[in-house]
Amino acid sequence: MTISDYVLGMPKIELHIHIEGTIEGQLLFDIADRNGIKLPYETPDDILALQNSNKTSDTESLRSFLECLDASRGALRRDTDYYEIAMSFYSRAKQENIQYAEIMFDPQQAVRQGVPFEGCIEALCQARDDALERFHVRSQWIMNLQRDFSLESAVETLSNAEKYREDIVAVGLDNFEVSNFPRKFLPLFDLARAQGYHLTSHCDVHQPNSLNHIRDCLNLLRVERLDHGLDAYFDESLSQDILERGIGVAACPTFYSAGESCPDKTMECIRGMLDMGVLISLNSDDPVQLGSGWLSSALASAQASGGFSDNEIKKFMQNAVQSSWMERSQKTSLLSDLNDY
Ligand code: HPA
Ligand code: ZN
Predict the structure, then answer these.
(1) From residue 58, how far is each of 19, 30, 65, 120, 225 by CA, in Å?
(2) 20 to 30 A Cα–Cα from 35, which one of 4, 56, 64, 182?
(3) How remote is the CA of residue 339 from the centroid of ligand 2, in Å?
(4) Residue-level pLDDT at 309
């Protein structure tokens, strides 16, 4: 994949990236060794092979991808592991010219593996502060709750987060959506809204009941942003509603495609929503564990597969700024940098 100088040099914003999906091969193997964990891969290249092992349907693809993610993030056992993977991401973000990122983390996974909630969030916040000083990358943390875990576990996690309210900008949902409907988390979202968090949720692409998931995330959970959510394009009234309500759509063009070309159906939705004027942005999701690539390469793939002009690629970044939760002054400054670019 060739990446143009225009894409490489563009000031970038990343709104949909999971810190546990950014662990590069050698670092992952070092962490696993240190923690005495046997990974289900022999070499870093095997990560993608496992992820691609079952692509018989979109649902099986999602399942096998999430199993692969579990295998990698299952090696994280100490708060220092979280610090290290975050710093590794930030140094990459600097190379990518990412100016600002809203990064997701999954505390339930950490706690299950023996890392206390406090240790996990404090390590991530330390990395955020160190990265600002060392790399000049600004960021905020989004706390994701896992859909396949119970409501009670999610509510308990939210209450553990209370002390860190100022360090967590938003609450979201991720993991396997298929039989885990948004309604299950209505009390969680009501609590999180009352505590002043911004709200987002994954609505994975091309899953059974995708449209119902999106509708319920918007109307029951009242999220302000969708992670993925592309199937809404296939329903005129739903996509119109997203447009009129100014809902951000944090899309990932290389989701399921291991970084190279982007699936046609995905491209059709991205192109359609951009042309409608929806606040759609392009993001990387899980650059290593999903093989979706770092942001520049995801943008270059989208450009090659979807025929987006340089100005349209810039528009995705402007949309990201508009639908982000950064401070107003930072929005103004980044929009002006993009405008001049
Ligand atoms: N979808 C669902 N769960 C996830 C994803 C995703 O794209 N990335 C990490 N966890
Ligand atoms: Zn995601």
Answers:
(1) 23, 32, 10, 32, 23
(2) 64
(3) 28
(4) 97
What digits encode the pLDDT tens for the residues 121-149? 999 999 999 999 999 999 999 999 999 99
Beta bridge partners of 146: 174
pTM: 0.97
Q: Which atom of ligand 1 is nearest the CA belonging to 204?
A: 1
Residue 262 to residue 279: CA distance in whole angstroms: 20
Q: Looking at the CA of residue 255, tell me the nearest atom of ligand 1.
A: 7
- How far apart are alpha carbons 127 and 161 in whole angstroms? 18
Other beta carbons within 10 Å of 134: 13
Pocket test for ligand 1, best of 174, 206, 289 (most atoms within 8 A of CB): 174
Q: What atom of ligand 1 comes closest to residue 104's alpha carbon?
A: 9
Is it the case that residue 259 has pLDDT exceeding 70?
no
81 lines ligand 1 (CB under 6 A): no
Q: What tokens appear for 322 in the block?
A: 């508009």
Arithmetic mean of pLDDT over the chain: 94
